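User: For documentation purposes, I need each entry recorded in a consistent format: the amino acid sequence on its own, followed directly by the corresponding structure tokens. There are two entries in this batch. Please keep commentary to a minimum and don't merge the entries.

Assistant: Recorded as requested. Entry 1:
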Amino acid sequence: MSHAVEIKDLHKYFGANEVLKGIDFAIEPGQVVCVIGPSGSGKSTLLRCVNLLETPTRGKVFVEGVELTHPDADIDAARRRIGMVFQQFNLFPHMTALQNVMIAQQRVLKRSKKEAELIARENLDKVGVGAKCDAYPLQLSGGQQQRVAIARALAMNPDLMLFDEPTSALDPELVGDVLTVMRKLAEEGMTMLVVTHEMGFAREVADRVVFMDGGVIVEDGAPEQVIGDPQHERTRTFLRRVLHPEG
């Protein structure tokens, strides 16, 4: 059985700036892995390298045993199995929630309008915004928009979901609704790689927590170990700042 994701000696430069410095990392099917760390530590770049939104400078990326970094890899086919949810919701403003969830199904998966609509409605119901099918993005709260974005990703039947700080653009009172949807996905066995500042979520939901700083993985282990009893001073300093910001 191959890993859901495997990364070998991953380096990423932006000009002369080395953002990822030789990352080795694997996720098993059904695992929920939360990546935490200070801004600029390389978390989002790592995530974006998994589906090649950023092209690694060096190293290999495998998804379900297929090497995406191979020159002959069918990136589009691989990406179809990977759902991605960003900080910004990236919804089409001129389309309703329903249409936003239908469009990629029809264009990419070539589903009929009828099938795409059925699957879109199912997924909008699943994330708790089924009643908002006919609303346009501007008529929805940020939390509702983000849940539509999650429904859009789920409608493509991904094997793996990538979340890049999915709650950081939301007002605090709306964060819970999005985390509830993600918690439910985790319970259903979805493989998830989540870059997040939500320590409570990481502690409760993750199978593993990865702490990154300065382009390297500093710690990788169970949440109770990495968050509850960190081994490295860098991790301890970061957690003190995040968990007790007023201190």
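Entry 2:
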Amino acid sequence: MTALPQPTGECALPAPLPASANGPDATRAPATPQHAPSRGHALPLAALLALAMAAFITILTEALPAGLLPQMGLGLGVSEALVGQLVTVYAIGSLLTAIPLTAATQGLRRRPVLLTAIAGFVIANTVTTLSTSYPLTLVARFVAGVSAGLLWALLAGYAARMVPGHLQGRAIAIAMVGTPLALSLGVPAGTWLGIALGWRVCFGIMTLLALALMLLVRARVPDFPGQARGQRQSLRQVFTLPGIRPVLFVVLTYVLAHNILYTYIAPFLAAAGMGQRTDLVLLDFGIASLAGIWITGVLIDRHLRPLALICTVLFGAAALWLGLASGQAAAIYLAVAVWGLSFGGAASLFQTALAKTAAAAADVAQSMLVTTWNLAIAGGGIVGGVLIEHAGVAAFTPVLLMLLAAALVTLVFARRHGFPPSH
């Protein structure tokens, strides 16, 4: 995934930079006058929705095999467990390549890089549609993961560059709306379509969507220049910028807590006597997530720090509630809704905080966020599995609360850099 208002006083961003790296300075002044935003300028909805569509395709491409395990297993002649590795290898592709690819493309114009990332999905999903070979499909999924790593590192920074500083958080929230839409609507619809018409039809449709998106990006998304060689910062320089590490630590702990619960929600619900209602619980989560991202989009530019604190506290309250509400269906639905509400806008909050902190190095910083996020996803699967194996789902709540407490303490102390108050 990838990378805003200019605070004043102790948390002020650097003065406007010359047109550079990831285009104009990461928070204002594009190098191309025809795209220069002015204060009060309307949001470029067509361009931002194109970015949201890119996020939608990315998430749907990643998650779709999980809903079609039996069908894909039959089509490829392998077990469901091996089909599950199509999701794993996708995540590995993002994890291994997001940072080096983003660093290597700093000097290139932004729109061609964005189009190249989308083209990776066209190729990967086309191969997946036509392949009858499991190893070839694995390669295609790795390519899709590589494309996802690069694309996530671009999206938030791209959205931020298209608008003036006081609208950047809202622009990022719009660009990120494709994520909850894909999880709450896209994956269930894709699963239904795959069962009804065949899984290859689903991936063929994904190819067509990606092709249409390339045309939309070419027509409506502005281009920005890459960074001049003398203005690029190394990974170490970006990582040691004040505020970068606190934001990444909050991402790691918050998303790890989320993925422990989300990955193992089925056994968690089974232990609570709701094993047959997993689909309804996930729908509840998805709808609440949409509400969360809408609320975040409205308030993020003025209240980023309070929103981050509130989301963390709400998630902690939901985790505690879930641990105490075993067998109480209404309480569990309500707790899951609170969890979804808190998680819906989390990606936008973290990406906006990181983009503000990194300024002109936003894309490189966002590639670190992509890597951290994927580590948290992988960690959620590993930690949750160990907990279930050795302590049962009852151990989830205390572990989640410890992780969220660490995130909350970091948020509280990252007042000067990372999550400063808005002005």
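Summary note for entry 2:
Confidence is low (pLDDT under 50) at residues 1-40.
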